[in-house]
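Our example pasted here:


***
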Amino acid sequence: MNPNQEQQQTTTAADLVNNMSEMSLVQLFQNYGDVSIKESKRVARLICQKRPLHTTLELVQAILGEKNKGKHFKKSPATKFFQALRIAVNNELDELDSLLQTVPKVLCDGGAFVVISFHSLEDRRVKVCFKELSKCRTGNYELITKKAKVAQKEETGVNPRSRSSRLRVLKKKSKKGAMGKKGSSSRRQSQEGSDGQER
């Protein structure tokens, strides 16, 4: 049970599952897995009753419980719980927040910042960040994707993992283009003024 994206990290999902308090697990599943409080409490209680857990299969069995054992699901009920554990172990949301803070520093004139997220927690953060920057008067940013772009049937058929992907794009307007428009406007006003004086 080790969903670490970086092998040098010491904390594993097993550490969290076997050492966190029942209430802490409830909060973890709610905040990082978008799991209802009722379901979070049920699973946290079962985990605490069955631990120590050492394998993924043991965790899945704890999540499903006795009444769901042997049932077939289109999407495993364990998916969101594993998502929550992965996010916590890899500190993913903090890493994303740190990345989004760099947008004004790394984005040059005419450049685009593209983010593909794979669950609502990530997409929500990207959406808020891009929207705030696009409304900032001094930032000169343009929101290219008013709504997140999702994969079409053709793509999901070839790549099933793309089903949950959400793409958003923010562009920094070119100062040169903006100056050119302003200059053209000024020249037109100047010419109109000159024509008026001649007449």
About this structure: The CA atoms of residues 114 and 169 lie 5 Å apart. Strands lie at 112-117, 141-143, 149-150, 166-172.
